[in-house]
Structures are given as C-alpha cells and as structure tokens.
Amino acid sequence: MSTKRYRLDPGNPRQLTDEEARRLDEAEIDYSDNPELGDEFFAKARTMKRSLLDDLPTPSLFGEEWVTALLLQMVVEHCRIMGRTDELNSAGIAANEDAIRELDGDLIEITHETHDRIFAKVTAEGRALLERLQAELEVYEQRRQAHERNKPPR
Fold first, then answer.
1. Cβ(24)–Cβ(16) under 8 Å?
2. Residue 65 lies in a domain
3. CA-based angle 59:71:133, to the nearest 5?
4. pLDDT at site 5
5. Which end of the chain is more exposed for a tag (fewer CB within 10 A), N or C?
6. What is the torsional sign of CA 68, 134, 110, 77?
C-alpha cells in the first residue's frame, strides 16, 4: 500500500467549490455565547511581539508528510537490525508490523515474512525523507536555541 501525500501551499490555499461555499453560507452558526467586542477592546489591542521563530521558512515537510517522516523515523529506530543500516525486523511486535505495512511501498519494501515477523528494507526514497526530516529538526533546534538565548529575562 502506498501513502498518498499532499503538499499544501500556504500562499495559495484551496478555494471552496460553489457547493461548499453555498453550504457554508446556509449553515446556521450560533454565536450567542461569544461576547460582543466593542471599540474599547480594539483600542486596547496590540500586535504580538515577533519572535525569531517567526522568521522560519515554511518547512519542506508539512502536514501528513511530516507525520509520515516521523513514523518512518520511529520504525527505523525500533526495528533496525543491528549493524545493518537499512534492514528492518518487526521483532514480532504488532505495532511495528502495522507501521511497516503502512509505510510499505515508496518508503519501505517488505522483503519477506515469517509467522511472527516482517522483514523489510528502507528504500532510497525512505532514506531521502529521513534526511529531509533530520535537516528540518536541525534547523528548528538551531532557531529554538537562538530564540532561548535572545529571550528577555522574566
């Protein structure tokens, strides 16, 4: 089974279809429990202070692809056969087997199965996704550390 991936473009969000827009317009939404926000509220409103994290570019891994990369990383860390970089063994653990089956196709290739184990290998595409994930995590950590260093004391 192959995982279908979507990449959302925040600069070009999906437009509602005419039917979706009509249904949204016709929906009865109850706002009665929301207080009115008068001029006094908006007069006191301030913009939030920017942080260093605001300057991060849109991650190359986004949404479902991010979750898929994390699942692949977990499978590799839990199932890697000692001394073999890309070979996996479910070790008879049902959760490992489920995850390997979910990733089978583009990212992992099941090589064979026994009565209680699945053996697989990480594909070139899977390795590339793991490298992208590692790069994303490194950038995030660098920015987080820079943010912590520049945060004013409380």
1. yes
2. yes
3. 30
4. 67
5. C
6. negative
Whether the CB-CB separation of 105 and 1 falls below 8 Å is answered with yes
Q: What is the pLDDT of residue 87?
A: 94
Q: Residue 3 in contact with residue 103, Cβ under 8 Å?
A: yes
pLDDT < 50: residue spans in the chain: none
pTM for the structure as a whole: 0.58
What's the confidence (pLDDT) of residue 93? 93
Which residue matches tokens 């089978």?
104
Distance CA 106, CA 78 (A): 19
- To which residue do tokens 């995850």 refer? 99
Domain that holds residue 133: 53-150
44-52 contacts at long range (C-beta below 8 A, 24 or more positions apart): 51/147, 52/143, 52/146, 52/147, 52/150
| DSSP SS3 for 109 | strand
Domain count across the chain: 1
The pair of three-digit structure tokens given for residue 33, joined into one six-digit string = 């429990």
Say what the pLDDT of residue 127 is.
94
